[in-house]
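Translate structure to sequence.
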């Protein structure tokens, strides 16, 4: 709703669960911010950039840079690499640091009744044993 009011086109990309499990095979036991995370970032940002290109978007981005648990430098480096491959601009960001970004994101989420989850989306980071 808010994005429409601002004239910003937005597209959400599916979770890609099967592709994700293939991509991170062998890295399931990595800790949060271990070797599994960049593999996930690459998969998701690549799919996002591809969709952005298909739909003539000017930029692609990720909300993960607002998380205090994710490394924005790693995300931005992967985004830059994908930008060079796809020729779609990546929105470089570290939303958590600029002007209390993380705190502000919580305030805005409450104000606009936006969904927030307490993990990145990876069941391993949430502590779920997916083998059960």
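Result:
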């Amino acid at each position: 709703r808010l994005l429409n009011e601002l004239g910003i086109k937005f597209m959400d990309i599916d979770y890609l669960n099967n592709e994700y499990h293939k991509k991170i095979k062998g890295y399931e036991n990595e800790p949060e911010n271990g070797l599994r995370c960049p593999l996930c970032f690459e998969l998701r940002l690549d799919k996002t950039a591809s969709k952005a290109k298909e739909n003539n978007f000017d930029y692609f981005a990720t909300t993960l840079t607002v998380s205090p648990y994710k490394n924005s430098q790693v995300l931005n480096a992967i985004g830059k690499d994908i930008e060079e491959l796809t020729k779609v601009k990546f929105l470089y960001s570290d939303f958590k640091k600029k002007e209390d970004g993380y705190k502000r994101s919580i305030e805005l989420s409450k104000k606009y009744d936006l969904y927030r989850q307490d993990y990145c989306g990876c069941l391993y980071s949430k502590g779920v044993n997916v083998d059960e």
